[in-house]
Amino acid sequence: MKNYFGAPIKKLGFGFMRLPTLPGKPDSEIDIEQVKKMVDLYLERGFTYFDTAFVYHGGKSEEAIREAVSKRYARDKFQVTTKLPLWNPNVTLDEMKGMTQTSLDRAGIDFYDLYFLHGIGPGREEMLDKIKAWDYLQSVKDTGKAKNIGFSYHGDGDTLNKILDAHAKDIDIIQLQINYLDWEDEGVQSKKCYDAAVAHGVGVIVMEPVKGGSLANFTPAVSDIFKKANPDASLASWALRFPQGLDGVITVLSGMSNVEQVDDNTKTTDNAGPLNDAEKKVIANALEELKKVPTIPCTACRYCVDDCPKSINTPGIIGILNDYAKYQNLAGAKRSYGMTTGGGPMPGAVAAKSSDCIECGSCENHCPQHIKIIETHKEAVKLFE
Ligand code: SF4
Ligand code: SF4
């Protein structure tokens, strides 16, 4: 595999998207003293790669790179990546340049080892061409502000193949959501996306190996399968090891939130290695057990959204309720709920929560699955608001 960073790096990257925050404070108030301890342990064990983004923690994640990493360690002791958000279809060249410079200033560095367009996916190809995003990305590399360039991707394999047919020559690395649950999933299509990247010869960095913490929390029946196979291994360690064994993967990010997670993940990476065949079978058994957890049979047809006077994203909310039923990860579910119902910068996103439901019943009249949608929203309010 090509050495994008001068020398091979270890297969655990430190994602700065779920940093610990000060007690009772919002997402933007990072507990920087705790982050320093996490960074120290991570680097002490020979790991070197950090991942941030312009938008993480309201911009404070890049500043945390400065305070915890670049002010305290020589620049050649670590690599750092950030991401340029291009969700405004009218963004200008000067605005893109301004965001790049802001990212550098916040992190206290004069180049990034890798610079990504953030969250590329279906339906955005034309817009990226219109604002000349690919040319701009190349200029960031040409001016020495980034050593490598690429994009993070959320979408299906066919679209990724099309984007890479046109732009694989323009980039070095792509960041993909890969975990054992999404590997064959029809929506996320981890395997198809991974295959597309490998076929086009671009390096792969893996994000969400633990699916936002979900694969570290299961119902007791599923957890028991893992615990019986290896009582000492954490659930997260199984998830982390799955993509670490894939060819062409440069590193696997984990959005770590405390020192214990850094300790567990670094030890897993150093000591356990990729999964063997018997261990892959354990995961297959756990996935079978997971299918038995009762969920709401929504097919995401979205008829209910078209008819909703409040434009509530009912299938998105049902998806979170279903994930919560399977993984019992309340913190992760609340975070997903906030993103799904908060509007956000993505095109078409609407700020509408379950508590905005006026119980008009229009959605239930149109739902082909006869789901009791009003009751579903009451449940979501109870759990997530
Ligand atoms: S019942 Fe609630 S979710 Fe359904 S259409 Fe009316 S407002 Fe929307
Ligand atoms: S109409 Fe029913 S099946 Fe379709 S997205 Fe809405 S809740 Fe799901």
- CATH class category of the largest domain: Alpha Beta
Q: Quick check: average pLDDT? A: 92
Estimate the global geometry from the Cα principal axes. Answer: globular
Low-confidence stretches: none
CATH architecture of the largest domain: Alpha-Beta Barrel
Q: How would you name the CATH homologous superfamily of the largest domain? A: NADP-dependent oxidoreductase domain
The end-to-end span amounts to 46 Å
Specify the structural class: alpha/beta
| Ligand kinds | iron/sulfur cluster
Report the major sheet. 8 strands, parallel, barrel
Quote the CATH topology of the largest domain. TIM Barrel
The gyration radius over C-alpha positions equals: 21 Å
What number of domains?
2
Notes on the structure:
The protein is an alpha/beta fold and 385 residues long. It folds into 2 domains: 272 residues, TIM Barrel; 82 residues, no CATH class. 44% of the residues lie in helices and 12% in strands. It has 16 helices and 8 strands. An 8-stranded parallel beta barrel has the order 1-2-3-4-5-6-7-8, surrounded by 4 helices. The site of one iron/sulfur cluster (SF4) has 16 residues, from helix 15 and helix 16.
Question: Characteristics of this structure?
Answer:
16 helices; eight-stranded parallel beta barrel; 12% strand; 385 residues; binds iron/sulfur cluster; TIM Barrel
Condensed summary:
The chain has 385 residues and is α/β, with parallel strands linked by helices. Helices cover 44% and strands 12% of the residues.
Task: Give the SSE map.
Blueprint lengths: L12 E3 L16 H13 L4 E3 L8 H11 L8 E7 L7 H15 L4 E9 L4 H6 L2 H10 L3 E8 L3 H11 L5 E5 L12 H10 L3 E5 L12 H10 L5 H10 L4 E6 L4 H13 L5 H14 L12 H4 L7 H14 L2 H12 L20 H5 L6 H12 L1
Parallel strand pairs: 1-2, 1-8, 2-3, 3-4, 4-5, 5-6, 6-7, 7-8
Helix pairs in contact: 1-2, 1-10, 2-3, 6-7, 8-11, 9-10, 13-14, 13-16
